[in-house]
Every structure is written in C-alpha cells, then in structure tokens.
Amino acid sequence: MKHHIWLSLTLFGLLLQGACDSTSPIAVDSMQTFSTGALSGGETTVFDESSHAFSVPAPNLSAEALAKHLEGDVEFEAVFVTAPAVVNPGLGPVYNNVSCINCHARDGRGRPPRTNEELVALLFRLSLPQTDSVQEGKPPMPVPGFGTQLNNRAIVGTPPEGTVQIDWTEKPLTTENGTRVHLRHPNYTLTETYRPLPADVEVSPRVAPAVFGLGLLEAIPAEAILAYADEADSNGDGISGKPNYVWDVVQQRNTLGRFGWKANQPTLLQQVASAYHDDMGITTALFLLENSVGQYPDRNESPSATATPEVSDDILEVVTFYVQTLAVPARRNVDNSQVQQGERLFAQAQCASCHVPTFRTGVLRGVPSVSNQTIHPYTDLLLHDMGPGLADNRPDFHASGTEWRTPPLWGIGLVQRVNGHTNFLHDGRARNLMEAIFWHGGEAEASRRAVERMSQAERDALIMFLESL
Ligand code: HEC
Ligand code: HEC
C-alpha cells in the first residue's frame, strides 16, 4: 500500500505549510470577487501537487475512518473477472471496463481515445425518445437489446453490444477581437452493433470525471444549492440554473441530483452501485438484476430478484466511503499577481455565476470529516443550457438535451500532472482550458464573449487562475 509511505509525508507537508503560510487568505465571503485562498476542501485539503494529488485520503480522517478508506481503495482498484472465480467474480455479461480505477485513473479523469486506441474511459449512454407528451422528468427510455448504455465489451460467449468510431472535425472560430482559434468537434458513429439500433436512438457521450472531494459535494445542504436555482431567470442575468430531480432507489422517490455530467445521480451510494451495474455488469443490493436482463423483449427471461449480490453491502459501503473521503488538493500560487488578476477576470466574466466558488457543507451522516466545512468547489451543482454546440440531445430526467451540470473546477490545474492530458468537457473534446471556455454557449454565451474580447495578457491571467485551482 503505497499510501502509507507518502501519506505521512503529505501530512508532514501540510503541517509545515500550515505553519509558514500565515499570509494565505481563507476568505469565506461567498461574493467571490477576491481570493478564495488555498484550502479548497476546508480541513480535507491536502498540500500535494504530485501525480498522486487526487489519491490522498482526507487528512482529517480518524484512524478508524482511514482504515475504512484504505479498504475502499483496495476495492476501487479490484479487477473483476468472469464467474465462477474465487476473487472478484461476476463481471458482465456485458460491460465497459473491469475496475473502477481503469476509468478513473489515479482517481482522476479519463479522455477520449486517440487514433487506434480502444474506448476506455469514455462511455455512451443510449435511449429512445419519450413517447409520452410529457417529456420532462422521465428516466431515459431503454433501447431494446441495449438498455441505457452501450457496453462495448462482453464475457466469452456473449457478443459486445457494439463500439463507437470517433471522427474529429476542425471548427475554426474568430473571436470578437479577431484572434483565430481552432476547436475540434467530435462525430460519433456507432459501429459493429450486434443487432441494428433504431434510427431515432439518442446517444450521450460521457468521459470519466475525477472522484476526489465528492463527499463534500454530497454534504452541501440541498437548500444551499436550491438558493442558486433561478429557472425563470428572475434576476435577468441570462443565467437560470435548474435542479435535476432523479430517481433515488433507496428512498423510492425523486430527489435532488448531484453527480454525473447531468446531475443524474442523487447520492454517491447510488452512483457507485450504478457504476458497478452499468459499467462493469456487477450486481449489488441496489441493482440486483444483471445489466443485460430486460434488454431482450424477445427472450423469455425469468430474472430472479432474490439473487445474492455479486458485490456485498460491506464492499459497496467502503467504496462509497472511499470516494466520499478523498482529499481536495490545495490551490497553488494564490499570491501571484497574475493569478489574482485572473480571479478578478473570472468574476467579471460571470463565470462565478455557475462555477460558484464557495459553499459551506452541512452534516453528512457517518462522514464527519466532510461535515461543516467551508469549501471552494467552483460549481453550483445545477443544470445550465450550454447551447447547441455542446448538446447531446438526450434528456436525462429534468436535464434537457442541451443542459449539463456545472462541473467543479477544483484541482483542474493538476489534471495534466495526474492524468497526462488536458482534455476537458463532458466528452473530452476540448484540448485545453481555453478551448473548454470557447465551447461555452447558451446561458454561458455572454461569458464566452467576455473572454473573446479579452487581450492575450488577460486570457493568460484567466488560464493561470484556472491552473492555480
Ligand atoms: C467504463 C468507465 C467507468 C468505470 C468502469 C467506472 N466509472 Fe465511474 N464514471 C464514469 C463516467 C463516464 C462517469 C460520468 C457518468 C455520468 O455522467 O452519468 C462516472 C462517474 C462517477 C462518479 C461521479 C463523479 C461526479 O463528479 O459526479 C463516481 C463517484 C464514480 N464514477 C465512481 C466509480 C466507481 C466507484 C466505480 C467502480 C465501481 C466506477 N466509477 C467505475 C466512468 C466509469
Ligand atoms: C451558464 C453557466 C456557466 C458559465 C457562466 C460558465 N460555465 Fe464553465 N461550464 C459550465 C458547464 C455546464 C460546463 C460543462 C459543459 C460540458 O461538459 O459540456 C462547464 C465547463 C467548464 C470547464 C471544463 C470543466 C471540466 O471539468 O471539463 C471549464 C474549464 C470552465 N467551464 C470554465 C469556465 C470559465 C472560465 C467561465 C467564464 C468565462 C465559465 N466556465 C462560465 C457552466 C458554466
């Protein structure tokens, strides 16, 4: 367990930095014009800017909680195989990958495949258009034979459902002040499908996001998030912000969605159980039927809902605890004047209207380390219309085909170091932070135009600020 060695180093570093760094401002002011300081994750912050920066346990865990976290870490890395096997059986029959870590490498984010690479950390959700006249608020409608996700791998004897070919089109853009930039637009073709897909299939590409700091996001009280919702845009700033409400299988009712690119999962427990089920074909108490069951209306299946889950409640719990208690890396260079200029420009360009810098967490039961913390995630966890350029045209509960959840920006400056790439946005199409900004449309149109009007020096400062997160 590599953690033990550098964990103590990290804790030592934290103490040292804490001791000498008396100037670093820890502003709790939510009106976000000036520095939010270095402690992005409150007391869960870790001073680590290495390639392991996303994999550090929260430094404020008790010894017992740390042991549970480390158990979860082992399970997060566990490679599943076909049943029957002694260790980690139950993979498939159809799946996308064999372990959590394979998609969330170093607890960080994935990227789209490069030429001739297989699909690894990019998956494709599928559905059929709703037939009902009421479209909004519905769970995605499964595609016969495929369900709601394209599983591009399968165990021996079962055909994979298909794969996806990605072609990139260069999309030139001349900014308002005359600079030329190039964006790349993905075109997806579903190929080698084991049976024909209906012509009206809806496809949503999603790349694996980083998994640190998530317990803090789960601990934000729903009212604090809803306070930013402004669906009718009553304050007239062009930015609405809409909560998603999604099916909670434990509570058996719709509750506020927080996780996933469309805020399509209500809790980390359910997010983790869905990952086992949808991405790996592993059953848990939350999803007891194999992911292929029910996909074949023409097959006479008699699924047994009393089957023993392939992953036990204990494992489900420690893996959930693991993603709840990964530390947030501290910001770097907070006292640099260019970074501070970038932070002001971020506020002036209205980025902070969606990427909300500061929240105070409430109490997350069983996870005291993430409770009652002042954090700087740079997200409102709400849905925003981002315009036709980014649209997947596949509604997900209350999220329309053009809406996405504001992703948190904490740690974004370390993605290159941790994951060796700078591919951003829901499908990794942006090749760097500036491209990600230039893809902003819809409610973020005015923000993008503000950046288009910036001088090169101002754009550099804005990027330096993002890289300090
Ligand atoms: C095939 C790749 C893949 C595998 C395997 C996978 N994930 Fe993910 N994960 C994703 C993608 C893609 C998303 C975004 C899904 C969405 O938007 O609905 C995601 C989202 C998440 C999130 C929510 C992150 C956020 O910021 O909202 C968590 C937590 C998570 N996964 C944990 C896990 C765990 C735990 C496992 C193993 C049990 C796992 N994942 C396996 C690809 C994967
Ligand atoms: C109307 C809300 C809104 C505004 C305003 C906004 N953003 Fe975003 N931002 C989003 C959403 C939603 C996404 C995700 C879009 C996607 O993945 O398709 C996003 C994605 C990003 C990403 C990529 C994050 C990732 O994890 O891939 C960056 C970087 C970013 N925004 C920076 C900015 C900056 C800088 C500004 C101001 C110039 C800004 N945003 C303004 C909503 C907003």
Structural class by secondary-structure content: alpha+beta
**Biggest beta sheet summary:** 2 strands, parallel
Q: Name every ligand kind in the structure.
A: heme C
Strand content: 5-15%
C-alpha Rg, in Å?
Answer: 22 Å
Distance between the termini: 28 Å
Instruction: Please give the count of helices.
Output: 12
- Spans of at least 5 consecutive residues with low confidence: 1-33
Tell me what you see in this structure.
The protein is of the alpha+beta class and 469 residues long. The chain has one domain (2-467). Helix content is 25%, strand content 13%. The strands form 7 sheets. It has a two-stranded parallel sheet. The protein has a two-stranded antiparallel ribbon with strand order 2-4. β5 (163-174) and β6 form a beta hairpin. α2 packs across α7, α6 (268-280) crosses α7 (313-324) and α8 (337-348) packs across α12 (456-467). The protein is globular and about 60 Å long. Residues 1-33 have low confidence and may be disordered. It binds heme C (2 copies).
